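Handout, section B. The chain below has 448 residues.
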Amino acid sequence: MSEFVDWLPTTEEMLSWIETVVAQGIRRSGYPADASVRHWVAEQLRGLGCEVRTEPVEVLGWESGPASLSAWLDAEPDRKIQVHGFPLPFTESSTGTAGPLVRMTEEMPTTPGFLAVDEVELSEVPLSTLREIAVSVYDPDGEFDTLTQTLPFGPQMQQVAEPAMAAGAAGYLGATTGFPWDTCDYYVPYDAVRRPIPGMWMTRSDSRRVLDLMSQGPCSGVLTAQSDLADTTTENVVATLPGASDHWVIIGSHHDAPWASAVEDASGIAMVLAAATHWSRVPQAQRPHNLMFLLNGGHMAGLAGGRAFVARHRQDLLPNVVLELHLEHAALRCRPEDGKLVATDEPEVRWWFASSGLEDVVLDAITEQGLRRSLIFPPDALFPEPPTDGAHFHRERVPLVHFITAPPYLFDSCDTLDKIDADGLVPLSRAAIHIVAATAGHKPPRTT
């Protein structure tokens, strides 16, 4: 692949794309910034000579407003504390839901109508454990012996409010005491499932104030949260370049985000644009297959874009797909410092999900590019399906390679430009080119 590497954009160009995307603002489905970014992406792809179209995606949109909790000791109702937070995504609005405060660690009351205070911690996984699950690893410095990864989910994953709802809670209060930084801007759940109670995430420091009050005796509170839920339409951006065969390779990511997010997934957009830039400069006869560059909408609304694309093209396209390559999260590791996350100069651990028969191709690509801290998993090694838009492709038995990193700040507003793995952008893009080029001569599994 060395003859092609100069056809990639530079690190500075890729960073400028990421900066452009981030500057638009919060990119949730239905927000103006998301529409602005998808129009900009479409124009970039047209400028590379791609044939570009958009396809509608129906999603449940969610817009957040203010949220707060007023709490007091039942024995001293005039001594109140007030905390402000972030409404739990996809929960209902409330102008004031009152009830006793009950910790989720305690025995739940038999009478419904309480406000559940749930201490949430992010999961930590030793890399030595993940290494045992992986098909292969690229860890030339032996860091996986001691390295631990903090994930952006707790043990409940996205089902954070479900235990409280099942116990009869009237409201949910997520206490982020187990987060390594002070935040309430946690965009979880993002499954676009309506939840019939109001909820709010509290910062770590405010959570401790509430828990300290509760330790002094029975407490009550009033939860107020503004959340607007409405059906809306976003779009998938689909761009194509003809290749040397009648089959297809899809190179994708998503254009929406929980915030004005840099890693999630302005970095993925940049890697897809880098791939399109490269392959637009390669003569058609040297492109191994027809190429499709797919930027999905509605990822942060239950993976709606990926689901809609697969449903729309199950018959006409998917039987002819040789590879679906999904690119997300060029991320730096961070360390907690004074209640904040500070970016280091080290890359976050890299996860690669590869279908059977593609593992060696991926290992060759990441080794060639020196992409250390990489693990290669089967698509269903950690979850029933890959934790990306490619989950829907996996269900259709489409061969796939998916790259993610899963840093702890992925769904937080602190996902800012300083957390981009700038040094990894071009090597990751080169690895993607290597993987696509290696599919030359491959046929879709349904035709073999």
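Note. Residues 62-123+153-230 form a domain with the Glucose Oxidase; domain 1 fold (CATH 3.50.30.30). Compare this with the example in section A.
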